[in-house]
Design goal:
The chain has 149 residues and is an alpha/beta fold. Helix content is 48%, strand content 17%. It is built from six helices and five strands; from the N terminus they run E-H-E-H-E-H-E-H-E-H-H. Helix 1 links the parallel strand 1 and strand 2. Helix 2 packs across helix 3 and helix 4 packs parallel to helix 5. The chain is globular and about 40 Å long.
Length: 149
């Protein structure tokens, strides 16, 4: 899977994320502080990673900042992106299942390496729900992007 990864800071958990994704066989494209010379501002690097998902250049993205909030906000401004800030495996599973999230946002402050692996396990095991209500909610979010109620 092609995964864009951004972080506004070169933190150990951000480096561990890239290493873990590559160890799992994913093709990783780094952004922000993870790529020398790139703009590390959370709004810039998060939107760049999310933009690759929207453009089809990446299958998914993982965006990181100190709390994860700014990264998720910036990613969610990109049309077609459904970013979810996940601080545990249960939330990651639900984000994939009920929200068909295609961008995972993580907090550099709260995410330890063992927790990171649990979140990634749940994220990658999660499948979008086929339930009509869940699909309807995801479709409604898409219409909101187009400003169609």
């Amino acid at each position: 899977m092609r995964i864009s990864v951004s972080s506004d800071m070169d933190e150990p958990v951000a480096r561990a994320l890239v290493d873990e994704l590559r160890a799992r066989g994913h093709d990783v494209t780094p952004h922000g502080a993870l790529r020398p010379g790139a703009d590390p501002q959370w709004a810039v690097c998060s939107s760049a990673a999310a933009g690759e998902v929207a453009a089809g250049a990446a299958d998914q993205a993982i965006v990181c900042c100190w709390t994860g909030t700014g990264a998720s906000i910036a990613a969610n401004k990109v049309p077609g992106v459904r970013a979810a800030l996940c601080t545990d495996a249960y939330t990651a599973d639900g984000a994939r299942r009920w929200n068909d999230a295609n961008v995972l946002a993580l907090s550099l402050r709260l995410t330890s390496e063992p927790l990171l692996k649990e979140i990634l396990d749940a994220w990658f095991a999660g499948e979008p729900s086929a339930d009509a209500e869940d699909r309807g909610n995801v479709a409604h979010v898409g219409r909101l992007e187009d400003r169609r109620p």
